[in-house]
Write a structure and sequence with these properties.
Blueprint lengths: L1 H57 L5 H17 L3 H18 L6 H22 L7 H25 L5 H23 L10 H34 L6 H19 L1
Length: 259
């Protein structure tokens, strides 16, 4: 019995020591992680300031590519730091500089302008995508009109990115145009039905929504396929936007199979 108690005591000490060591390790790792994050943040801040100084001192005599790259770096770093308003300001400046330099399509400078334009449109896309069909028939009619109008405007704006003829950002623009169709169809399918469930009106309204959604899904699928085909032609099968398009295409097929 004495040996059993001794064994239990040793086991208890070992476990307690192990827990304490684990807690100390976790605390140390957490501290190291916080230190690393702070160092990364400081590095980004320093990079931003360095680029700003360079623009003040050298932009007037530098070439278009150098100037646009500096603007793009600042915008990316501001976005990484979570300062989207500041990032937006620098993206607007990137486009202004691109217009000033009259950048040629399919050039590195045009790619930077296309990137800026794409990310400037993303908040507008998110606002559009957040429009849900709720309330009574009259309220939903108004919301549908807003959704349709917003899609038309965004479609034109994403299409304008193609004028820069940057393969990577062409893929991103095509992908976003397809997701607008896809998300519009989803919004229709999950719309609130402003009639009592089980009623004839409820069934008719739901059927009409699904009939409106079907061609949008078809169009989204076509554009996803065109996007993936274009990406393959450009040798960009593993680009971020190609992967997103491929995943979205697979989700669309999965949703269709589950209906």
């Amino acid at each position: 019995m004495r040996n059993s108690w001794a064994l239990l005591l040793l086991l208890s000490i070992a476990l307690t020591t192990g827990c304490a060591r684990t807690a100390d390790t976790e605390k140390k790792e957490g501290k190291n992680s916080a230190t690393s994050e702070e160092a990364s943040k400081q590095a980004l801040e320093q990079s931003i300031e360095k680029d700003k100084r360079w623009l003040e001192e050298s932009a007037t005599s530098a070439g278009a590519l150098e100037v646009l790259e500096a603007h793009a770096r600042i915008a990316r770093n501001e976005a990484t730091l979570g300062r989207e308003l500041e990032a937006g300001v620098w993206r607007e400046r990137t486009l202004q500089m691109a217009n000033k330099f009259e950048v040629a399509p399919a050039s590195p400078e045009a790619a930077l302008a296309a990137e800026a334009m794409f990310y400037l449109l993303e908040p507008k896309y998110e606002q559009w995508n957040a429009i849900a069909f709720e309330g009574g028939v009259k309220a939903q009619h108004t919301l549908v009109q807003q959704k349709v109008k917003g899609q038309q405007v965004l479609h034109e704006e994403y299409t304008s990115i193609l004028a820069y003829d940057s393969p990577r950002w062409n893929i991103a623009a095509y992908y976003r145009i397809a997701t607008m169709m896809h998300e519009f169809a989803r919004t229709l399918r999950v719309a609130e039905i402003p009639f009592e469930e089980g009623s004839e009106e409820h069934g008719i309204y739901k059927q009409q929504l699904h009939e409106l959604a079907a061609p949008l899904d078809d169009k989204a699928g076509q554009i996803y396929d065109q996007t993936l085909s274009y990406a393959e032609d450009q040798g960009l099968q593993e680009d971020e936007w190609t992967i997103l398009a491929r995943e979205a295409r697979a989700r669309l097929e999965q949703e269709r199979a589950q209906r």
